[in-house]
Design goal:
about 475 residues, 3-stranded mixed beta sheet, 21 helices
C-alpha cells in the first residue's frame, strides 16, 4: 500500500505540468501582443515628431501672419458702440467709443474708466465726417474704427493744405515787397555801383583820409562818413582791428582845425559805451591829445567836438578817470569854463562832473546791494578821488556861479551838480552870500512858474521839479 500510494502520487505529480501548459502559452501571447502594441505606438509618435521638426518655418510664419492680418481686419470692421455720456460719472465698457470733448478718468478704487460731460457743457456726441460727399450718420449709435481712422486722416490732410496755402500767400506777399539780392546786384552792376560791407567801407575811408593825394575837403568828407559807421559797437571794434582807430587818434595832432574837429567827432562816436575801444584809446595816447587841444587856443566848434570825445572816453571807465586826474584834467576844464564865450561848454563840463560823481555813488550802492565787499569795478572807482580834487580846484565856487545862466536847462544841470557837491562843499556854500541870494531869487521865480503849471493841470511839471531842487538845496544849507 505504501508503495501503491507512492506510485499513485508520483503519477499525479507527473500529470500536473501537462495541464498548466496551455495557460502559460496564452499568457505569453498576451505579453507579446502588448509589446507589439507599445512598439507600434512609439514608432507612430516618433514619426509625428520628425514631421513636426521638419515643418517649413517660413510657411508657418506666413500662416501666422495671415491669421493676425485676418484678425486685425475683423477687428477693424468691428462695429463699436457709441457711449452717450451724461452729467454723472458712468463706467465705460470695453469696446465703447467716447465722443470728443468728454471728460474721462480712471477710478483708482474700482480700476474702471468712467466718463461724463465736461464742465456741464452740452456736448453734442457727433463726429463730422465726409464720406462720399455725405456726412457720417451716427444716429445708429455705432460707427467702425475704420471710419474714425479715415476721419482723422482727412482732418490732418485738410490742416496741412490750409497751412500750405497760408505759407504760399505769405511768401507771395513778401516777394511783392522785396526784390531778390541777385536782381539788386545785377542792377547795381549795370549802374557801376559796388555793394560793400561796413568793414570794406571803413577801410576805403581810412585809406582815403590817410592818402597824401587827398584834398582837405576829401579828408573831411571821409571822416564825416566814417563817424556814421562807428556808432555801431562792432564797426568801432573793426576800426580798431585794422589800425584805423590809431590813424584817427594821430589826426588830433593835425594843424588843420577841421581835421581835429572831425577826428574828435569820430573818436567820440567810437568811444561811446565801448570798453574795448576805450582801453585801446588810452593806450594810444588819445587822452593826452584831447586835453592838449582843450588847453590851447582852438575854435569853439573844435573844442565842442573834443569835449564830446573826452566825455565819451571818461564815462563808465574808472581807469581813464584816474589818468584824467593825474594829467591835470580838472585844471584844464576849469580854465575852459572860465574863458569868455564858453558858457555852452561850461554847462557840458558841469554835466560831465555830475555824471562822474553819480557813477561812483551808484557803484558803491550796487556793491552794497549785492553784498560784494571788493569787486574789481568798485576798487577802481575807489581809486578815483574826484570830490577832493573838485574842492581843491575851486569847483564849489565855479559851479555856484553858473546858476546865473538864464537858460532853464542850464540851471537844471547846475542844480543837480550842486546837490551832489552839497556834502563836500557845504561849508563853502553856507558862507557864500551870493549863492543864498541867487537861490532865493530862483525860488520866487519858479514858484510863480510852478503855480501856472498847476493852473494848467500839470501836477508834476518841469518847473515844479526845479523848485523842488532849489528847496532841497536851501534846506541843506540851513
Amino acid at each position: 500500500m505504501p508503495l501503491g500510494c507512492r506510485a499513485g502520487s508520483r503519477r499525479s505529480l507527473t500529470m500536473a505540468p501537462q495541464g498548466l501548459l496551455p495557460s502559460r502559452m496564452a499568457l505569453r501571447g498576451m505579453l507579446l501582443g502588448l509589446l507589439m502594441v507599445s512598439c507600434f505606438t512609439f514608432c507612430r509618435s516618433h514619426q509625428n515628431s520628425k514631421e513636426f521638426a521638419l515643418t517649413n518655418p517660413e510657411k508657418s510664419t506666413t500662416k501666422e501672419t495671415e491669421r493676425k492680418t485676418k484678425a486685425k481686419e475683423e477687428l477693424d470692421t468691428e462695429v463699436l458702440e457709441v457711449f452717450h455720456p451724461t452729467h454723472e460719472w458712468q463706467a465705460l465698457q470695453p469696446g465703447q467709443a467716447v465722443p470728443a470733448g468728454s471728460h474721462v478718468r480712471l477710478n483708482l478704487q474700482t480700476g474702471a474708466r468712467e466718463v461724463k460731460l465736461q464742465y456741464g457743457d452740452k456736448i453734442q456726441n457727433n463726429l463730422k465726417e465726409s464720406k462720399k460727399g455725405k456726412r457720417l450718420d451716427i444716429n445708429t449709435n455705432a460707427y467702425t474704427s475704420q471710419d474714425l481712422k479715415s476721419a482723422l486722416a482727412k482732418l490732418k490732410k485738410g490742416a496741412e493744405m490750409e497751412s500750405s496755402e497760408e505759407d504760399k500767400a505769405r511768401q507771395a506777399e513778401v516777394k511783392q515787397l522785396f526784390r531778390p539780392i541777385e536782381e539788386l546786384k545785377k542792377d547795381f552792376a549795370e549802374l557801376n555801383v559796388v555793394i560793400e560791407t561796413d568793414m570794406q567801407i571803413m577801410v576805403r575811408l581810412i585809406n582815403k583820409f590817410n592818402s597824401s593825394s587827398s584834398s582837405l575837403e576829401e579828408k573831411i568828407a571821409a571822416l564825416f562818413d566814417l563817424e556814421y559807421h562807428v556808432h555801431q559797437m562792432d564797426n568801432a571794434q573793426d576800426l580798431l582791428s585794422f589800425g584805423g582807430l590809431q590813424v584817427v587818434i594821430n589826426a588830433l595832432n593835425s594843424t588843420e582845425p577841421l581835421v581835429k574837429e572831425y577826428a574828435a567827432f569820430v573818436l567820440g562816436a567810437a568811444f561811446s559805451s565801448n570798453p574795448k575801444v576805450q582801453v585801446e584809446a588810452i593806450e594810444g595816447g588819445a587822452l593826452q591829445k584831447l586835453l592838449v587841444i582843450l588847453a590851447t587856443k582852438q575854435p569853439l566848434a573844435t573844442k565842442k567836438k573834443v569835449l564830446f570825445a573826452l566825455c565819451s572816453l571818461l564815462r563808465h571807465f574808472p581807469y581813464a578817470q584816474q589818468q584824467f586826474l593825474k594829467l591835470g584834467g580838472l585844471q584844464v576844464l576849469r580854465s575852459l569854463v572860465q574863458e569868455k564865450g564858453t558858457e555852452v561848454l561850461a554847462v557840458r563840463v558841469v554835466t560831465l562832473l555830475y555824471d562822474l560823481i553819480t557813477e561812483k555813488m551808484f557803484a558803491e550802492e550796487e556793491a552794497e546791494l549785492t553784498r560784494e565787499t571788493s569787486p574789481e569795478k568798485l576798487q577802481q572807482y575807489r581809486q578815483v578821488h574826484l570830490l577832493p580834487g573838485l574842492r581843491e580846484q575851486g569847483w564849489c565856487a565855479i559851479t555856484a556861479s553858473l546858476l546865473a545862466l538864464p537858460e532853464h536847462d542850464a540851471r537844471e544841470k547846475v542844480l543837480q551838480t550842486l546837490g551832489t557837491l552839497l556834502a563836500t562843499c557845504q561849508d563853502h556854500y553856507r558862507q557864500d552870500a551870493q549863492l543864498s541870494r541867487t537861490l532865493a531869487s530862483l525860488q520866487a521865480e519858479y514858484q510863480a512858474l510852478a503855480a501856472l503849471e498847476l493852473q494848467d493841470g500839470e501836477e508834476e511839471g518841469y518847473f515844479q521839479e526845479l523848485l523842488g531842487s532849489i528847496n532841497s538845496l536851501l534846506q541843506g544849507l540851513r
